[in-house]
Write a sequence for this structure.
């Protein structure tokens, strides 16, 4: 960059450094179009996070991304959330920046060299452990350690705009970087995008077809009179979320044709309720998950409370606790298949 | 304190008698040594990380010559170092102004609510989505100024009393901290997550786009800093002397305070609330130079040195996980504040 | 408090005042039972308390009142009493008007004790970790007081507040260090970081009351001594009080009360600051009146703050500690603006 060539004299005092940098800093901020432009990235990120207009169209937009290259054709150009990126050769050293990308590459038989876990759980998700190999820890999702990533000398970095748009510039200098728009309900589109970068589109489509078959089977097994399913997740500090359609689990339930209560049948991630209004969570079947340590949530207070015990599903014995890491934290096809298996056991078993 | 007769005080250093000249020489020596150790630290900072880069290679990168380590040193470590240096220097200078005005080593921008004000304003802007990313630093400055003004207004009761100033500052800090919590509860969870990373005071992911507003504001303020360096001397006179010399103390103090608050807010905007640097730097610098008043250049260099060393440790100690730099400065700064309280010989009731 | 004017209150007036305060407390309790993210009519609340019940198959509203709001309110009352009385004693024994568990970092000390006990020693029951809360509170209290007493002028308000701020900052940085390197501690810490009385079961109230009682008894024993101490250490000694013993007993009582409050609800600041001053303004300086008045007013402030926290951003709830700080800070400012504080 321009700045480096300005020769920052080491003996100069801090104020002098400040002066010389002021000029450089401002010019690089407003300057050349080579930068993707951070304010723009920031605005895009905001729109996604706030459930702005991008929220509904994120899936379509992601689906339009990918590559025009034929299988086995290298180099290939991949269009993604931050622009286009050229990948010269089949990637062998992949770094994944979130659980969704981890699931995606592992399900395609790729053992990533680096992985950024969430703040709460530095471990690999147990359902992926077996096939994930031993990726090195590269910081956490919200606090990436770019040096650790650079030190791994990756040849592909997979992540999402929502999580790491700020660091795209640096990441893309380390290795070709492909970003989806956001994790979550766009998991199928993200999967295909990641697969396009790895030249494993056929495998990914096969996996998705397998998932499709399984989930349709489940729908058929449940017949016409499907139970209404409510999704309750307890989070720390008394937050209780009822997961809705624009969530990972929401898409799976939709695929299976399982009906949802009206308050969860909305195009949003989730609806929040308080412990006092837990009766709004009622349905034929309730699946509960707990984020982090159950003791840090309102779970015991809610479930020990007669209001909970009075729920239709609870009375009928149809309230089930399900693994959070696949149902709620899961963001990829492996988790989705696990969830379908669980659903089958609980609903059709 | 050397009493310079009739001349404007800024020139006193050059013309005063032998004693004062000696003091000055020590201050210069200290500044040189601080500058040298800062340079060494900066090179070490650029060398050390996930992978070690030799000092020779670092110098090559700095000189703009092609190098295999250009990316790690030039693109990853350098911007972060620059933000750290600038923010540390700004905190140091801000602290020296506020402490000079308050004539109390315990008064520092973080104690009197500036950092919390900047934090609350920034989180509010993030939560309500009212400000674009690029304007956040300015929101932060406004927040810091507003908090300081609030403290000033509430602490004013027939004059300013340092103890009252500090107590009100602590109270306002707590209130603003609670307000920040309130906003985080209200806000979107993703915004809250990002805000929390910022609120811990971290240099990870800070780059030239964070350094730019900081550097440009420092640049704009440079003439003011030269004025302030002179004004600092007059303020440290007692009221009678100053009045006799015809200095309008109230106005000078107000200007110094505003300068200090602006600097601390700008630094907070760039690096997040890195606690206690503004408290530590001027005190350490003054102990090193043994001057009567707080040395400005020394404070700036010490502040930059503290932040750089702390961030170096924060990056390296638990790698690959990075601690926020604020954790380290607080771990050092808080015991130092305690020690200061135990050792304090200052007039506990100086005017602020 | 070394204020020259000393007001005392007669038994009749005092009794009447306490009665009024009791009425206020009843109102606050009803408010806390009736207000929340779910709309429940006061008549239903009263009905639920008297008739409705777990076995009676009452309505959902009645269930909410009995199962969620009653425990929450009960814990709110206990924590309010503990904090207000702890604040009163701390102000008495340090002879310092801004002494308070939150500002002095004593609450933070207790909560760090609890987090360490849970995260590292696997102590999960309240009766187990309450001891760590006591230890943490005690260590923090002694450290802050010793630091503030050092140097010139003894433990002035500004030095106490600064020492407390420094202690809070130090503990916060220690905790961030632990949390960053030990993910399991993170969830625990999140829970203990900001005081809240939501989601606590009635069981917690059952486990805390013996400690609360012990703390209150310790404090009650010092009431007369605190009055004497207000006149100065020499006067107190002259009146036949053993000043060091008095301080130790009072300090122990305050530590136990703070530990109890933190073990039940997490750190909550400013209740212990504001309430004793209001109590003193109402009943004068006699601790045999101030202590009961504070014990009645503490829960009122805490419950009102909690109710506000429930209604500001529904359906999310703002933790009560955030609300007490927002309510308490104006009080601190008013207090500091009074000359007595900074002249000390």
């Amino acid at each position: 960059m321009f700045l480096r060539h300005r020769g920052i004299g080491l003996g100069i005092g801090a104020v002098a450094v400040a002066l010389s940098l002021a000029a450089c800093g401002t010019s690089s901020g407003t300057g050349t179009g080579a930068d993707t432009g951070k304010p723009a990235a920031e605005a895009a990120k905001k729109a996604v996070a706030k459930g702005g207009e991008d929220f509904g169209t994120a899936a379509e937009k992601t689906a339009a991304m990918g590559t025009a290259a034929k299988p086995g054709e290298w180099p290939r150009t991949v269009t993604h959330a931050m622009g286009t990126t050229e990948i010269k050769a089949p990637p062998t050293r992949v770094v994944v920046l979130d659980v969704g990308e981890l699931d995606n590459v592992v399900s395609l038989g790729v053992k990533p060299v680096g992985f950024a876990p969430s703040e709460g759980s530095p471990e690999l998700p147990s359902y992926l452990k077996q096939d994930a190999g031993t990726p090195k820890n590269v910081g956490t999702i919200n606090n990436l350690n770019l040096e650790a990533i650079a030190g791994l000398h990756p040849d592909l970095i997979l992540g999402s705009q929502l999580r790491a748009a700020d660091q795209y510039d640096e990441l893309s200098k380390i290795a070709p970087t492909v970003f989806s728009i956001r994790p979550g309900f766009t998991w199928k589109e993200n999967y295909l995008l990641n697969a396009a970068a790895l030249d494993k589109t056929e495998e990914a489509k096969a996996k998705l077809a397998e998932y499709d078959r399984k989930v349709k089977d489940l729908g058929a097994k449940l017949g016409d009179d499907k139970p209404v399913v409510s999704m309750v997740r307890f989070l720390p500090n008394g937050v209780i979320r009822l997961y809705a359609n624009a969530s990972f689990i929401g898409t799976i339930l939709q695929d299976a044709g399982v009906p949802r209560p009206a308050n969860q049948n909305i195009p949003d991630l989730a609806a929040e309720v308080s412990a006092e209004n837990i009766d709004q969570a009622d349905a034929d079947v309730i699946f509960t998950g707990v984020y982090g340590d159950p003791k840090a949530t309102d779970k015991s207070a809610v479930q020990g409370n007669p209001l909970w015990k009075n729920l239709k599903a609870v009375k009928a014995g149809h309230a089930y606790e399900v693994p959070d890491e696949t149902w709620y934290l899961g963001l990829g096809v492996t988790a989705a298949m696990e969830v379908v298996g669980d659903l089958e056991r609980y609903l059709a078993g | 304190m050397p009493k310079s007769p009739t001349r404007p005080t800024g020139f006193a250093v050059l013309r005063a008698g032998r004693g004062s000249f000696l003091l000055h020489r020590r201050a210069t020596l200290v500044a040189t040594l601080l500058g040298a150790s800062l340079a060494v630290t900066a090179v070490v900072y650029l060398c050390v990380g996930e992978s070690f880069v030799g000092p020779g290679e670092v110098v090559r990168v700095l000189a703009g010559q092609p190098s295999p380590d250009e990316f790690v040193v030039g693109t990853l470590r350098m911007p972060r170092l620059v933000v750290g240096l600038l923010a540390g220097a700004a905190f140091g200078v801000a602290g020296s102004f506020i402490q000079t005005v308050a004539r109390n080593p315990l008064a520092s921008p973080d104690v009197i609510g500036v950092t919390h004000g900047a934090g609350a304003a920034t989180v509010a802007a993030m939560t309500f989505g009212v400000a674009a990313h690029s304007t956040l630093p300015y929101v932060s400055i406004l927040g810091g100024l507003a908090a300081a003004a609030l403290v000033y207004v509430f602490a004013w009761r027939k004059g300013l009393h340092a103890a009252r100033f500090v107590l009100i500052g602590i109270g306002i800090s707590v209130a603003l901290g609670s307000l920040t919590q309130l906003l985080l509860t209200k806000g979107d969870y993703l915004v809250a997550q990002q805000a929390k990373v910022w609120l811990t005071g971290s240099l990870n992911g800070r780059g030239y786009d964070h350094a730019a507003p900081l550097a440009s504001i420092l640049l704009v303020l440079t003439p003011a800093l030269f004025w302030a360096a002179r004004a600092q001397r007059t303020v440290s006179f007692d009221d009678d002397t100053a009045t006799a010399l015809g200095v309008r103390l109230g106005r000078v103090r107000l200007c110094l305070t505003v300068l200090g608050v602006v600097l601390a807010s700008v630094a907070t905007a760039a690096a997040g609330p890195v606690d206690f640097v503004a408290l530590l730097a001027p005190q350490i610098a003054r102990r090193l130079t043994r001057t009567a008043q707080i040395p400005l250049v020394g404070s700036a260099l010490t502040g930059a040195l503290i932040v750089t060393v702390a961030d170096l440790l924060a990056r390296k100690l638990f790698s690959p996980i990075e601690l926020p730099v604020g954790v380290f400065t607080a771990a050092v700064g808080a015991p130092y504040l305690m020690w200061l309280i135990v050792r304090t010989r200052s007039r506990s009731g100086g005017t602020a | 408090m070394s204020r020259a004017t000393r007001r005392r209150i007669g038994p009749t007036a005092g009794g009447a005042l306490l009665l009024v305060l009791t009425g206020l407390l009843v109102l606050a309790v009803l408010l806390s039972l009736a207000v929340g993210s779910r709309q429940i009519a006061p008549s239903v609340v009263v009905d639920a308390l008297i008739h409705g019940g777990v076995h009676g198959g009452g309505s959902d509203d009645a269930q909410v009142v009995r199962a969620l709001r009653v425990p929450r309110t009960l814990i709110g009352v206990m924590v309010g009493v503990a904090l207000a009385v702890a604040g009163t004693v701390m102000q008495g024994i340090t002879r310092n008007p801004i002494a308070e568990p939150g500002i002095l970092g004593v609450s933070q000390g207790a909560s760090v004790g609890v987090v360490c006990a849970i995260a590292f020693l696997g102590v999960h029951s309240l009766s187990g970790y309450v001891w760590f809360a006591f230890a943490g509170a005690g260590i923090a209290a002694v450290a802050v007081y010793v630091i503030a007493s050092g140097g010139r002028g003894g433990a002035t308000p500004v030095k106490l507040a600064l020492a407390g701020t420094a202690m809070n900052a130090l503990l916060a940085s220690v905790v961030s260090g632990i949390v960053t390197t030990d993910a399991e501690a993170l969830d625990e810490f999140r829970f203990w970081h900001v005081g809240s009385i939501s989601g606590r079961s009635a069981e917690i109230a059952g486990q805390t009351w013996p400690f609360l009682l012990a703390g209150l008894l310790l404090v009650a024993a010092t009431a007369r001594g605190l009055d004497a101490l207000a006149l100065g250490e020499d006067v107190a000694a002259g009146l036949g009080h053993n000043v060091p013993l008095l301080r130790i007993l009072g300090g122990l009582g305050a530590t136990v009360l703070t530990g109890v409050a933190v073990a039940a609800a997490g750190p909550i600041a400013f209740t212990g600051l504001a309430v004793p001053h209001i109590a003193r303004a109402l009943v004068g300086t006699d601790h045999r009146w101030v202590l009961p008045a504070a014990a009645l007013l503490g829960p009122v402030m805490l419950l009102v703050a909690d109710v506000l926290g429930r209604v500001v951003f529904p359906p999310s709830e703002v933790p009560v500690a955030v609300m007490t700080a927002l309510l308490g800070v104006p009080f601190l400012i008013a207090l500091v603006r009074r000359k007595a504080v900074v002249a000390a």
Remarks:
- Chain C touches chain A at residues 36-38, 54, 60, 63-64, 66-69, 124, 183-184, 186-188, 190-191, 194, 196, 198-201, 314-317, 319 (CB under 8 Å).
- The mean pLDDT of chain C is 84.
- Chain C is about 75% helix and 0% strand.
